[in-house]
């Protein structure tokens, strides 16, 4: 199943720290040998300042208690640097931690800067130091501290470039702390800036969008309302273009979101077209499933794909998130996906049939006969399906849903009278005003 | 009288045939006399160099005097030729004929003097040249042109009498030339051979000339012009003589000489080839590399001047030399990296004096990119002109690797020099050399280039050695540093990628656009349809192509054609049709692809236009096979149009996918007898007839019998795809046509009928059901499809018709009102109207919209661009439209009745909508 794993394609678009959760997940799923993952983690950590963690992993990797000297050195160095940065930023940090002083800040940045400079001798150097300090904190794995400092930094920062990177940093920190609500806010903030800002090159902008979309996966598949929002975000023209040009693998998530989401029908049709177009550049069971149901009308293949989808979902770090209920773990998204996928197949299948054998249907739906019957009865009862079950022959009979000619006629003419009344009244109005004028 | 009689006999000007016997009689004496005369003259001319002219003059006999008169007249003629003055030329011609009479009489011979013959030859040549040069002819004043014409006739008549002698003269002009001791500046090519031989000889010759020039100068005041010219050229030659001694040559002398020669460039009477030769000579004696470079640049530009016309190409040997020169330039530039070539800065006079040991940058004027582009253009032109079915063409094509080498070297140099813009331009030239080559052809070229190494080295070496031995050895030896063999990567795609990415990085707009088109073409050629489609959509070229130059537009058309072919090969019929239909819509494919000129019945082209068009033609080896293109286009159209026609059989005009195809079909249907298919069109029409009857096998066989398929690389798979498509469309057509005759149809039978698998059949039919093209549904337990009777009754159909009319009426009322009292107040109106317009536009898009709009219009926006809506124009709409079309079918006759029933309906409608619902429900029940 490793062949549907998207981690190698997603990882380059994430922050170093954001890759850890993915690797953890992979380790849990046992998709790759443990050694490989540990090595990957180690490599990842080498560029960060999370030296302690790196040491742990090193021990696990080589099964030793010793830690190479350079790591120890590195640790000392990191600690020293942290100290230095803390010192540099301390005046500002002290000021900000002082509740009273903090109240003096106002919405206007220029005023704040001036005020700080005059009263507390805090100049641009200190503000810069705060940024560096926050960044370092983040690199050391102290996300909450980093998030706080970055938030403060943003209130004082005048450089828009810096402000944006601070925002990215904050977003990453919030994601890593799993504060999904705040992260979502941050996400929208970043998005606004990306969409509004005039980037040096369009290419740059596209790249930023792609990053944003990758990062947002963490949020959307954890946030309660995420599945609607992922469609809102990804399906925007600009973002869809970015997906198509540079990151077609994101289609998997969009497709899943579409399947899981029950509304969104109008956009869904367009999305099918996109999938069709991108077939040559990206295919995985989830998109293929949609293609089978809505393009090829090949229901056997769709069923096959549905089974594959299950695997894919379980092995995807974003989709296969576990919900623990007592000692019973389930993957909520998988169940939801399968349910909806079944509905998709069934719906389309019914549209082109007038009589279906229950046995066949059960098979198509991956259910047994009893279950299938219950399922269909449920559908009929909730009036999602206009059909009857003929239990003697074991078939489902569809009610023909030909539009009534008379209803059509009424639809056509309904608006006419209203329009005519309006017309007349306007004419009269006009005549009156003219008379009055005379 | 006796003498008069004799002269008459000798006077061949009138009728020679008559005097035949007399000639025989006179032969002996005449010859004697003639010999005497000649020898005398010869002697005279020989001794002239020794004796003083003045002396000569005194003792001139009558004979000589006449003779001199004649030469004077000839000189006049020469002058007239130089200024293209036909009026005075005509006068001189008359005069010389009279003088001839006199000379003959004096000489008492019937042999025409050589001088005269030579003049005739000269005249004839000049006349032919003048006639050939149409542009100049057009520019002539009317009197001049008239004179030219009468001259033409006179000369023709006159020359007939001397045909033999003229031919004899033409065979070995040297004899005469030497005899006359005349040097013709005009006659450049003869000059070459002499010039190249040896400077020492040149010196001698110029001595002889000098005296003659003097004489000429004294003879006639008119002579001053050419006299001056000749003095100059004589001086040149003296200079050349100076160069004979290597020790005397200094930078100054060379520079001075160089300036002189360059100054003479473009002046009247300076032979172009001669100029090249002179400059080539100078390159050998150049003192410093920089100077050599400077001179070489002039040589190259002089070589470009050899062919002044836009329509003809540069002689091939000159072209080859030119390439060699450019390679030498590159050698020098690579060897001495401190020399900078620039066409912006006006260089210092003595810049080139700086020798090899000079460390700073030396600036030389020149533009390598322009030279290379020119060379490329000349190569292209020569291929345009040469008949592609000859060996010459193939020989010419063999020069392609040479050009590739040169451009590669230039590009490398420019990249080293940091001129990325120039490098991009050169890279584009290289791209244009390879973009149309499929891998096989590319491999062939690569092999040729490798082979050439051996052969060419020899061929080049030989003349070079000879040249070296003849000339004084070069002062600045230039070792061949730049590789003479290009290095082609294994796959053409790799090369394209390298070049194209370079261009995208640093090319200008046009270069980038062209490179992009070439890239698209090449991808399409390699069957990578989706990649090339994405490139096209991302670049937005289809939006801006109208504003580009014609040659780029042609390239765009070619790329589109190739894209269509590739879509077809991959099996994307609709896309293929979208790409090709525009090309065929106006019936001017040849013109659009620049693969031949098509005659238009309706307006004549001016010669100017025609010439322009001819200049744009693609050389033969770059052509896209038109038959294949047509076949693909028509087959695509057939596959789309046949089911479409079957679906809308009631009002065929309603939705047309391919107008071209419909027209052809009409024509073929109008024929009383249909013969066996001959051309591509007939084949497709025959296939269409079979397909409409659901006979997929016959349709496929007919198409399979086309012999253009052998042009396809993956012929078998394409034909297999085509077979599958034909089956599929046959099934669809069958269902459209006969569904009304069935109540149910079993899947097995359908599958068997069209030789399709159950799964495929099911999928096709399901698709038709979903899109509501077919009003039916499956009965799963029995594996049957059950057709629903959704045909409306006559009353229902009329009612629909009425409501539609009512809507139109209401709308027009609203519009009328709005126009009277202004748009205020009707908030919902504009919106609705817009909807209506959209409706119309969508309906129209089926047939009339331009294909770009149809299939590619909604291409990517912004950088990434959205590929959404690719192909959104026509198809999506069809389901909806299909539904409506049924409602409206067959009711065109009952218009009168429509209104009658209409009034009743209207009345009931006025009562209120609620009542109407119940009323209708009642009717339904």
TrEMBL record, chain A:
<comment type="subunit">
    <text>Component of the eukaryotic translation initiation factor 3 (eIF-3) complex.</text>
</comment>
<comment type="similarity">
    <text>Belongs to the eIF-3 subunit E family.</text>
</comment>
<dbReference type="GO" id="GO:0001732">
    <property type="term" value="P:formation of cytoplasmic translation initiation complex"/>
</dbReference>
<dbReference type="Pfam" id="PF21357">
    <property type="entry name" value="EIF3E_C"/>
</dbReference>
<dbReference type="GO" id="GO:0003743">
    <property type="term" value="F:translation initiation factor activity"/>
</dbReference>
<dbReference type="GO" id="GO:0016282">
    <property type="term" value="C:eukaryotic 43S preinitiation complex"/>
</dbReference>
<dbReference type="InterPro" id="IPR016650">
    <property type="entry name" value="eIF3e"/>
</dbReference>
<dbReference type="GO" id="GO:0033290">
    <property type="term" value="C:eukaryotic 48S preinitiation complex"/>
</dbReference>
<comment type="function">
    <text>Component of the eukaryotic translation initiation factor 3 (eIF-3) complex, which is involved in protein synthesis of a specialized repertoire of mRNAs and, together with other initiation factors, stimulates binding of mRNA and methionyl-tRNAi to the 40S ribosome. The eIF-3 complex specifically targets and initiates translation of a subset of mRNAs involved in cell proliferation.</text>
</comment>
<feature type="domain" description="PCI">
    <location>
        <begin position="219"/>
        <end position="403"/>
    </location>
</feature>
<dbReference type="Pfam" id="PF01399">
    <property type="entry name" value="PCI"/>
</dbReference>
<dbReference type="InterPro" id="IPR019010">
    <property type="entry name" value="eIF3e_N"/>
</dbReference>
<keyword id="KW-0963">Cytoplasm</keyword>
<keyword id="KW-0648">Protein biosynthesis</keyword>
<dbReference type="InterPro" id="IPR000717">
    <property type="entry name" value="PCI_dom"/>
</dbReference>
<keyword id="KW-0396">Initiation factor</keyword>
<dbReference type="GO" id="GO:0071540">
    <property type="term" value="C:eukaryotic translation initiation factor 3 complex, eIF3e"/>
</dbReference>
<dbReference type="Pfam" id="PF09440">
    <property type="entry name" value="eIF3_N"/>
</dbReference>
<protein>
    <recommendedName>
        <fullName>Eukaryotic translation initiation factor 3 subunit E</fullName>
    </recommendedName>
</protein>
<dbReference type="InterPro" id="IPR036390">
    <property type="entry name" value="WH_DNA-bd_sf"/>
</dbReference>
UniProtKB/TrEMBL annotation, chain B:
<feature type="domain" description="PCI">
    <location>
        <begin position="620"/>
        <end position="792"/>
    </location>
</feature>
<protein>
    <recommendedName>
        <fullName>Eukaryotic translation initiation factor 3 subunit C</fullName>
    </recommendedName>
</protein>
<comment type="subunit">
    <text>Component of the eukaryotic translation initiation factor 3 (eIF-3) complex.</text>
</comment>
<dbReference type="InterPro" id="IPR008905">
    <property type="entry name" value="EIF3C_N_dom"/>
</dbReference>
<dbReference type="InterPro" id="IPR036390">
    <property type="entry name" value="WH_DNA-bd_sf"/>
</dbReference>
<dbReference type="InterPro" id="IPR000717">
    <property type="entry name" value="PCI_dom"/>
</dbReference>
<comment type="similarity">
    <text>Belongs to the eIF-3 subunit C family.</text>
</comment>
<dbReference type="Pfam" id="PF01399">
    <property type="entry name" value="PCI"/>
</dbReference>
<keyword id="KW-0648">Protein biosynthesis</keyword>
<feature type="region of interest" description="Disordered">
    <location>
        <begin position="452"/>
        <end position="472"/>
    </location>
</feature>
<keyword id="KW-0396">Initiation factor</keyword>
<dbReference type="InterPro" id="IPR027516">
    <property type="entry name" value="EIF3C"/>
</dbReference>
<keyword id="KW-0963">Cytoplasm</keyword>
<feature type="region of interest" description="Disordered">
    <location>
        <begin position="876"/>
        <end position="901"/>
    </location>
</feature>
<dbReference type="InterPro" id="IPR058999">
    <property type="entry name" value="EIF3CL_C"/>
</dbReference>
<feature type="compositionally biased region" description="Low complexity">
    <location>
        <begin position="141"/>
        <end position="152"/>
    </location>
</feature>
<feature type="compositionally biased region" description="Basic and acidic residues">
    <location>
        <begin position="461"/>
        <end position="470"/>
    </location>
</feature>
<feature type="compositionally biased region" description="Acidic residues">
    <location>
        <begin position="206"/>
        <end position="222"/>
    </location>
</feature>
<feature type="compositionally biased region" description="Acidic residues">
    <location>
        <begin position="12"/>
        <end position="30"/>
    </location>
</feature>
<feature type="region of interest" description="Disordered">
    <location>
        <begin position="138"/>
        <end position="232"/>
    </location>
</feature>
<feature type="region of interest" description="Disordered">
    <location>
        <begin position="1"/>
        <end position="62"/>
    </location>
</feature>
<dbReference type="Pfam" id="PF26569">
    <property type="entry name" value="EIF3CL_C"/>
</dbReference>
């Amino acid at each position: 199943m490793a062949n549907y794993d998207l981690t190698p394609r997603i990882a380059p678009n994430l922050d170093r720290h954001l890759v850890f959760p993915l690797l953890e997940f992979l380790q849990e799923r046992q998709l790759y040998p443990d050694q490989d993952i540990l090595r990957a983690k180690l490599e990842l950590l080498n560029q960060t300042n999370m030296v302690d963690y790196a040491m742990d992993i090193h021990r696990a990797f080589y099964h030793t208690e010793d830690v190479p000297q350079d790591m120890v050195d590195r640790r000392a160095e990191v600690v020293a640097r942290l100290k230095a940065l803390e010192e540099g930023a301390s005046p500002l940090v002290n000021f900000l931690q002082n509740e009273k002083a903090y109240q003096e800040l106002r919405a206007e940045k220029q005023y704040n800067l001036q005020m700080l400079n005059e009263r507390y001798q805090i100049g641009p150097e200190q503000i810069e130091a705060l940024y560096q300090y926050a960044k370092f904190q983040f690199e050391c794995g102290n996300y909450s501290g980093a998030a706080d400092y970055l938030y403060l930094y943003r209130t004082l920062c005048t450089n828009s470039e810096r402000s944006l990177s601070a925002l990215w940093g904050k977003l990453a920190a919030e994601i890593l702390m799993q504060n999904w609500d705040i992260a979502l806010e941050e996400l929208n903030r970043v998005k606004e800036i990306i969409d509004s800002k005039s980037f040096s090159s369009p290419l740059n902008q596209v790249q930023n969008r792609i990053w944003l979309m990758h990062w947002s996966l963490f949020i959307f598949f954890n946030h309660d309302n995420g599945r609607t929002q992922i469609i809102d975000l990804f399906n925007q023209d600009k973002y869809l273009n970015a997906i198509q040009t540079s990151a077609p693998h994101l289609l998997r998530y969009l497709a899943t979101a579409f399947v899981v989401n029950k509304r969104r029908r109008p956009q869904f049709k367009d999305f099918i077209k996109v999938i069709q177009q991108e077939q040559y550049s990206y295919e995985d069971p989830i998109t293929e499933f949609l293609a089978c149901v809505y393009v090829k009308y090949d229901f056997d293949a769709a069923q096959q794909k549905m089974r594959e989808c299950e695997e894919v979902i379980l092995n995807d770090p974003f989709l296969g998130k576990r919900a623990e209920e007592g000692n019973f773990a389930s993957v909520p998204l998988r169940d939801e996906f399968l349910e909806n996928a079944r509905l998709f197949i069934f719906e389309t299948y019914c549209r082109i049939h007038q009589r279906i054998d229950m046995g066949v249907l059960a098979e198509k739906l991956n259910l047994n006969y009893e279950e299938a019957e219950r399922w269909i009865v449920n559908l009929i009862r909730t009036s999602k399906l206009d059909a009857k079950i003929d239990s003697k022959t074991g078939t489902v009979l569809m009610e023909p849903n030909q539009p009534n000619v008379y209803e059509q006629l009424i639809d056509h003419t309904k608006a006419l009278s209203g329009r005519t009344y309006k017309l007349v009244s306007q004419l009269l109005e006009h005549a009156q005003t003219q008379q009055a004028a005379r | 009288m006796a003498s008069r009689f004799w002269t008459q006999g000798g006077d061949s000007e009138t009728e020679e045939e008559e005097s035949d016997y007399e000639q025989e009689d006179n032969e002996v004496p005449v010859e004697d006399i003639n010999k005497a005369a000649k020898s005398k003259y010869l002697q005279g001319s020989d001794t002239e160099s020794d004796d003083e002219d003045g002396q000569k003059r005194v003792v001139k006999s009558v004979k000589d005097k006449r003779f001199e008169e004649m030469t004077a007249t000839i000189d006049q003629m020469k002058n007239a030729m130089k200024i293209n003055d036909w009026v005075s030329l005509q006068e001189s011609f008359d005069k010389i004929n009279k003088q001839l009479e006199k000379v003959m009489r004096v000489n008492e011979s019937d042999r025409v003097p050589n001088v005269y013959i030579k003049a005739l030859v000269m005249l004839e040549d000049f006349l032919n040249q003048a006639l050939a040069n149409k542009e100049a002819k057009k520019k002539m004043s009317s009197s001049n042109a008239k004179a030219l014409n009468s001259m033409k006739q006179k000369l023709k008549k006159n020359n007939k009498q001397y045909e033999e002698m003229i031919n004899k003269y033409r065979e070995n002009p040297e004899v005469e030339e030497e005899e006359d001791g005349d040097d013709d500046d005009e006659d450049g090519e003869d000059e070459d051979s002499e010039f190249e031989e040896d400077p020492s000889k040149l010196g001698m010759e110029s001595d002889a000339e000098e005296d003659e020039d003097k004489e000429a100068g004294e003879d006639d005041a008119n002579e001053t012009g050419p006299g001056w010219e000749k003095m100059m050229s004589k001086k040149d030659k003296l200079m050349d003589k100076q160069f004979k001694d290597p020790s005397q040559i200094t930078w100054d002398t060379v520079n001075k000489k160089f300036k002189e020669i360059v100054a003479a460039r473009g002046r009247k009477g300076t032979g172009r080839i001669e100029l090249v030769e002179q400059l080539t000579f100078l390159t050998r004696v150049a003192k410093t590399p920089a100077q050599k470079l400077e001179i070489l640049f002039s040589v190259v530009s002089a070589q470009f001047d050899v062919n002044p016309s836009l329509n003809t190409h540069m002689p091939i040997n000159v072209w080859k030399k030119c390439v060699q020169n450019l390679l030498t330039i590159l050698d020098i530039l690579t060897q001495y990296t401190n020399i900078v070539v620039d066409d912006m800065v006006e260089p210092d006079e003595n810049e080139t004096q700086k020798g090899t040991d000079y460390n700073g940058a030396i600036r030389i004027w020149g533009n390598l990119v322009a030279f290379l582009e020119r060379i490329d253009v000349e190569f292209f032109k020569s291929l345009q002109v040469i008949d592609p079915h000859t060996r010459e063409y193939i020989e010419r094509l063999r020069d392609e690797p040479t050009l590739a080498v040169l451009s590669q070297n230039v590009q490398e140099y420019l990249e080293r020099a940091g001129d990325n813009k120039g490098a991009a331009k050169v890279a584009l030239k290289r791209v244009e050399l390879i973009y149309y080559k499929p891998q096989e052809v590319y491999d062939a070229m690569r092999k040729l280039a490798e082979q050439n190494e051996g052969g060419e080295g020899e061929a080049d070496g030989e003349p070079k050695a000879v040249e070296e031995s003849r000339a004084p050895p070069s002062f600045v030896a230039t070792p061949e540093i730049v590789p003479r063999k290009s290095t082609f990567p294994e796959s053409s795609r790799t090369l394209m990628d390298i070049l194209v990415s370079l261009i995208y990085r640093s090319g200008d707009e046009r270069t980038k656009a062209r490179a992009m088109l070439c890239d698209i073409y090449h991808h399409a050629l390699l069957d990578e349809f989706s990649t090339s489609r994405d490139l096209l959509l991302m670049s937005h070229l289809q939006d801006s192509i109208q504003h580009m130059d014609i040659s780029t537009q042609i390239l765009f058309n070619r790329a589109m054609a190739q894209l269509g072919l590739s879509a077809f090969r991959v099996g994307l019929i609709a896309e293929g049709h979208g790409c090709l239909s525009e090309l065929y819509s106006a019936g001017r494919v040849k013109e659009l692809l620049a693969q031949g000129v098509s005659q238009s019945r309706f307006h004549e082209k001016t010669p100017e236009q025609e010439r322009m068009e001819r200049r744009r033609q693609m050389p033969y080896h770059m052509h896209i096979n038109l038959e294949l293109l047509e076949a693909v286009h028509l087959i695509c159209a057939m596959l789309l149009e046949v089911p479409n026609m079957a679906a809308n059989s009631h009002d065929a005009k309603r939705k047309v996918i391919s107008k071209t195809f419909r027209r052809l079909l009409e024509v073929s249907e109008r024929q009383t007898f249909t013969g066996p298919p001959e051309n591509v069109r007939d084949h497709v029409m025959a296939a269409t007839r079979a397909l409409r009857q659901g006979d997929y096998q016959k349709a496929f066989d007919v198409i399979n019998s086309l012999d253009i398929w052998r042009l396809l690389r993956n012929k078998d798979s394409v034909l297999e795809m085509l077979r599958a498509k034909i089956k599929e469309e046959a099934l669809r057509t069958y269902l459209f046509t006969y569904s009304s005759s069935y109540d149910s149809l079993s899947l097995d039978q359908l599958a068997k009928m069209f030789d399709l698998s159950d799964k495929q059949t099911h999928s096709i039919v399901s698709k038709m059901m979903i899109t509501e093209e077919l009003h039916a549904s499956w009965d799963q337990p029995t594996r049957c499809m059950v057709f629903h009777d959704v045909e409306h009754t006559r009353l229902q159909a009329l009612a629909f018709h009425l409501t539609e009319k009512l809507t139109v009426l209401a709308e027009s009322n609203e519009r009328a009102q709005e126009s009277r009292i202004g748009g205020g107040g009707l908030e919902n109106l504009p919106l609705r109207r817009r909807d209506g317009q959209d409706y119309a536009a969508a309906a129209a898009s089926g047939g009339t919209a331009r294909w770009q709009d149809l299939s590619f219009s909604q291409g990517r926006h912004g950088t990434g661009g959205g590929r959404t809506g690719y192909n959104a124009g026509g198809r999506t709409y069809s389901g909806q439209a299909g539904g409506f079309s049924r409602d409206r079918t067959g009711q065109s006759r009952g218009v009168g009745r429509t209104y009658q029933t209409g009034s009743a309906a209207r009345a009931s409608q006025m009562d209120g909508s609620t009542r109407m619902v119940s009323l209708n429900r009642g009717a339904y029940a």
